[in-house]
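In this supplementary section we document a worked example of the pipeline. Step one takes a protein sequence of length 196 as its only input; no multiple sequence alignment statistics are reported here. Step two produces a three-dimensional model, which step three serialises into structure tokens for compact storage. The input and output of this example are shown verbatim.
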Amino acid sequence: MTANDEQSKGAKADLLRSPIPTPYWGPQTGSAFTVRAVTTIDATPTAVLNSLLDTNEYPMWNHFVPKVDLLNSSDGRLGSDVLFTEHVDMFGQGKPSGLVKIKLLMTTLNEKDEHNGSKSYEAVWLGKAYPAWALRSERVHAISGDSSGLTTYDVWETFSGPLALLVRFFVGKTLVKRFRQWNQELKDYTETRANI
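The serialised model returned by step three reads:
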């Protein structure tokens, strides 16, 4: 277990064999599965969203995806219809190897006013690394505040298609660790920024 795995005990993560439906692909069956992580962050939903969307700051906090290349935007900020490449460190040490690059498209950014006076957001990233007949992936980031000023950050990625079985077998457990790490590092970074 790495130091980053030790630091990630505050966030919870699981591999779900009953996949969570996603906005684009809907319910998935067969070899489909979901990796999900949830944490509570002591910051506003808007602060959490800003940390998530500002890829210029990823090298400062994100050891799973320490680098992002925006392919059709130049300001370093994710938004609807932005195509991007994640440079992934499956060891979670913040050193992109150049071997694992995942192409994604941010398809959705929804904002909603909650009855408790806070905001909630949903950002959706659609996997574009493989043809849809081989591997479909979609990552949903749900950010919601409560009346006490805390924010729940719930992220899940559902994988389906013939290659999903191989993804689960070879890197499923590692993805659970890295999603937990992502959540904990996002929490730590956002809370630190909120208290400056």
